[in-house]
Design goal:
With 323 residues, the protein is of the alpha+beta class. The protein has 9 helices and 18 strands. The protein is 29% helix and 33% strand. Helix 1 packs parallel to helix 5.
């Protein structure tokens, strides 16, 4: 982690008004920025993809902060007027902004405004909006890799945490909206437990930097971060978000006993050789399944297999709390 590239004095807050508690959370975020003497403009999304449009427009055309010298053209583009962009919505909103700013060096702060808040949890950000604002303003910036993934039909996006098919995608696809409203992240946990015990298998063929892997599986995951839920579950050995690689994890339990053993080892960070697990680090991936399966990326449904993915090294600058 490195300090933010400059003091944060003015930010754009991109809000998804359809998110749970959006109005209350926006008010809390505005108040927290005001307490920190940070100017905050708000832009609200109106449709899928709009968060990315708002981020690109802010970078290209935002005026400078009050009292700052007038920017001159730099390579034909106007200097950004915001020191950072913050997102308030689900992981999908966050990744639209992160993807739009990939390679720009402009830091993004991800506030917990959705149901799962997977990315915020992974970064160790407090789950209250006001504490999250304070922690990110006082923290540093981390340059992290991104995955770029494309599903059948041409749907494409970046992901920061993980993408995959099988249990994780079923968790997103099959969790009822009423459960999410009532239980929050626990609703996903309940669906995931049901999927693990159900053991629905499929044939997977994965090509990793030219190596072909074929086997029956219940989940195929491309991980960028190594752990989830406050490091409660670790996916595999040596997974780092800034090493220029994505890490393939293929889980193939044959029985409920196998599934329990594999989950127990993930809890304990026990990555000894296991016939039910394959790990590979790589830069280029192709994932095919029989039959075709729905995929997810950072908790958002993407489309069906086959999938093509690659790593974009150190493409995102994310604000993170001090550790």
């Amino acid at each position: 982690m490195v300090p933010p590239p400059q003091a944060i004095r003015r930010v754009l807050l991109v809000v998804n008004p359809a998110a749970r508690r959006a109005g209350r959370d926006e008010a809390a975020a505005r108040a927290a920025f005001a307490r920190a003497a940070v100017g905050c403009d708000v832009a609200r999304t109106e449709r899928p993809g709009h968060a990315a449009e708002l981020a690109r427009a802010a970078v290209a055309f935002a005026p400078p902060a009050p009292g700052a010298p007038s920017p001159g053209p730099a390579g034909g583009a106007t200097r950004p007027g915001y020191d950072a962009l913050f997102t308030l919505g689900g992981d999908g909103t966050a990744m639209e902004v992160v993807g739009a700013l990939a390679g720009s060096g402009i830091p993004v702060g991800i506030l917990p405004g959705g149901t799962g808040n997977l990315i915020a949890r992974t970064l160790g950000t407090p789950l209250g909006v006001a504490p999250a604002v304070a922690a990110l303003l006082a923290g540093g910036a981390a340059e992290v890799d991104l995955g770029s993934i494309e599903a059948a039909g041409g749907t494409r996006r970046h992901f920061a945490f993980a993408a995959g098919v099988g249990i994780d995608a079923r968790m997103i696809e099959e969790t009822p909206a009423a459960w999410k409203r009532r239980l929050g992240v626990l609703a996903y946990a309940a669906t995931a437990a049901r999927a693990v015990l159900g053991g629905r298998r499929f044939r997977a063929r994965v090509v990793v930097d030219g190596e072909v892997i074929e086997r029956e599986a219940v989940a195929v995951l491309l991980a960028n971060f190594g752990a989830v839920l406050g490091e409660l579950i670790h996916f595999g050995p040596g997974i780092r978000e800034d090493d220029g690689f994505l890490d393939l994890c293929v889980f193939s339990p044959d029985s409920t006993a196998d599934a329990v053993r594999v989950m127990w080892r993930l809890f304990r960070k026990d990555f000894r050789d296991d016939r039910c697990v394959i790990y590979r680090a790589g830069r280029q991936f192709r994932i095919e399944t029989t039959p075709p399966h729905v995929a997810q990326a950072d908790g958002e449904l993407l489309g069906r297999t086959p999938l093509v993915a690659h790593v974009v090294a150190r493409a995102a600058t994310l604000l993170v709390p001090q550790r």
